[in-house]
Specification:
The chain is mostly helical. The protein folds into 3 domains: 227 residues, Clc chloride channel; 223 residues, Clc chloride channel (Orthogonal Bundle), CATH 1.10.3080.10; 129 residues, Roll (CBS-domain). It is built from 25 helices and 7 strands. Strands 1-7-6-5 form a 4-stranded mixed beta sheet. A 3-stranded mixed beta sheet has the order 2-3-4. A hairpin with a 5-residue loop joins strand 6 and strand 7. Helix 15 runs antiparallel to helix 16. The chain is elongated and about 105 Å long.
Amino acid sequence: MKIDNKRKYLSFLKFKRDFQKYGLEKVRSYELILHWLNNRLSRSQFLVLSGVIVGCSAGLAGVILKTLVHHIHNFITTKVHFEYQILFYVVFPFLGIVLTTSIVLTLFKGQDRKGIGAILYEIAQNSSIVSSVKMYSQIVQSAITVGLGGSAGLESPIAVTGAAIGSNFAQTYRLSYKERTLLLAAGATAGIASAFNAPIAGIMFAFEILLTGVVFTDFIPLVVAAVCGSLLSRILLQEDILFRFYTREPFNYKNVPYYLILGIATGLYARYFVIVSQKVEHFIKGLNMSRLRKAMFGGAVLSLLCVLFPPLFGEGYDTVKAFTNGNTHSIIENSFFRYFEIKEWTVIIFLVLVCLLKAFATSFTIFSGGNGGNFAPSLFAGGTVGYLFALICQHLGFSDVPVTNLVLVGMAGAMSGVLYAPLTAIFLIAESSFGYDLFIPLMIVSIMSYLIAKWFSPISPELKSLADQGKIFTNKHDKNLLFSLKTEDFIDRFSETVNENASIADLFELVKDGTKNIFGVVDDAKTLRGILTIDDVRPFLFSDTDTSASIIKIMKAPPAIIHQEDKPLEILQIFDDTGVWNLPVVDQNNKFVGFISKSSILMSYRQLLKDYSD
């Protein structure tokens, strides 16, 4: 045993010397140990260890953010009388968006890409390399936005934070693209698991939205990360902060018609929510204002909505819990509706307005400069729709309406339709309510809502802007791999050129002394005029044709021209359409840059695919 320990120690010292030889003397001790373990453990073993570390880190980040926002909300909503709450609703939501925008502009240099689309962008466009700044920037921004009343959720920022933690961990230990993507997803998984204390939902989130084609051996780090994040949440978070619902009714097959109707209702509401979000985003982008003024405008709109309808303040989970506990009157008593006689129609009108305005409150929060996501808003809205539907059924005289169950499955339905993630929604509510016997109604409502959403739009609206810009594909994983390639890497900038006024004899000398078989013909300003290949020159090599003539007579127009901003997938499509293997590349001024080869793109793609599959 002593000999084995001595060998391990000597091996550790050798690894340290090797590390210092590459100029990394300032490496931290724990990093040195992990590097050493990376060289001693098998790939699967190190990935499991990585899953534990990333999961605990991302879970802890989620716990800190949830706790911070919870205490801010408690201070604003429960420590003062209604009259002072009105003043707070006027000031704090406005202040939250303006402060977030100011911090983004000053501390983070205006970089405010947020939401789940930000994670997919990094996977597809940046080889799963996420800036280290995002390990804390999302926490700071979302804590200010949501903590001070922004009508958005913390789950998306937590997921982005976890993804950044996983990506930077993988970068530190020089892991491959596949492993980096896996740990990025593990961090996001742990973040979602800690936010909801729902590990299975976190895993489903990774499979549905972030990853495709994951093999069984890669499943383990995700599970480990989800368990670690969920355990930290369960251990450290107070009971009132946890996303938990203890009141529900047993499933009765006779209530299936309620769930069928609710599935349609949540699907249509999800589409309404998406349309409002898109309209508000377009409206705010079209405003001829600075980003700070847009934040002030959006903050003012949000403050007005929160004053009129306090349930729109913050995430809204307390309101949904009040629905499941039958404590609706306390919600209305904290609004201006307290001055009306509270009857059934009063509650119904109030909830209808809350449902309709939630989409506006969330959209103005996110698009005017705040930081948050659609997880919490979709759950809040779905729970409200479910409770509203239950009240209407009771008002119409139906008996034994499963009110609590309709609230719970309504949450899953709206989330499924807004985020295009039915499995995540199903397991999230099942885990959060201990309602595994509700799987049938959860599946009915979630799938119906998802199908309605897909009928209106085949891809998630949150990703639509990225897809429209050609920055990401959401249907095939191999296309996302292809989009991680950069056009700049395939341009042959040492391509040979010949002036359009040169003679055929001059071209002979270029062919004689050069190594290329294709040439760009340019004018004096280096503007592309045409191309020539060896095949075009060959007829003149062994003939008596006059070679003093200008090459303009034999040059030809290229079948197509590539621009520097074109994407690899677009370029491959052009190659397929033209049937050639080499095409010229020009800049915005039509200046010749070089040639690009179809084979070079395909070889790089095959290598990337091999690295991902190994």
